[in-house]
């Protein structure tokens, strides 16, 4: 029995040490930043502005937000990062899935063109690698609060357009301390980055279903409205868009994401006109008690083009109807 016990302990230690060595030295998976030299056109910059402001909402994440307005619109200076960092016991500095804890200190960085504290000295390829593959300029993995595992679906032309727009932001000198991620998450986070090794073609904007599917992916509709396991991190296959995901805003009540399928628990009674009207309802600022605000960036999404919202509705109608999900 003692021999068996010793063998078991030995195997455990071997696996643990081997796994630790793998996480430490073999990961993250990465590739050199692509050599991209883009000629920016006004059309490209406008496409990037639209995506970064109203679809991918880069500016909502990388700016302080006004929680006295419904939907928490981004505040000036846009893209300069947030003044407050997110810590393990901080519920005041950001939105999180209720089960998530932040192991250490995570600061939302400056993405303006300032060469010292922003991304002014980053190449186009380094910026795209960061938001699609999760690798910083220094080759280190980015904490997955940055949703690069979703943004990897952004097409190559749209990725370049976002960079083109970011280059036009006023440069702001605002330094943020580097992330300080506690053990063992500092090792586990190396699992998430992954190279984009094949071209990501542009979506056919004339195909409503294809465009709607693309937008629901990169705008995080699918992620926020799909139940997840493993402390809210892994989407449950077959439950896409069923809702039921708990979110917590600034220490207020836990909110549950809506069912976006055509089930009676979801959008069964909603016409396309109803859907578009609701999405555009908060185009004008609406004052609200911060404790009664929302986790959804309604103000940003309200600026989405009517044609894109129409395509999203059309795509959601093709999704298998499901009861409201649970986590």
Work out the helix count. Answer: 12
Question: Could you list the spans in which at least 5 consecutive residues all have pLDDT below 50?
Answer: 4-23, 90-100
**Strand count:** 8
Structural class determined from secondary elements: mainly alpha
Ends distance: 42 Å
Quaternary structure type: single chain
> Into which percentage range does the β-strand content fall?
5-15%
Helix content: 25-40%
Q: How many separate domains?
A: 2
Global geometry: globular
Strand line-up of the largest beta sheet = 1-3-4
Order of helices and strands: HHHEEEHHHEHHHEEEEHHH
Largest sheet: 3 strands, antiparallel
Describe the structure.
- The chain has 327 residues and is mainly alpha-helical.
- The chain folds into two domains: 42-191, no CATH class; 208-316, Cytochrome Bc1 Complex, Chain D, domain 2, CATH 1.10.760.
- The chain is 34% helix and 6% strand.
- The strands form three sheets. A three-stranded antiparallel β-sheet has the order 1-3-4, with no helix packed on it. Strands 2-7-8 form a three-stranded antiparallel β-sheet, with no helix packed on it. It has a two-stranded antiparallel sheet with strand order 5-6.
- Strand 7 and strand 8 (254-256) form a beta hairpin.
- It is globular and about 50 Å long.
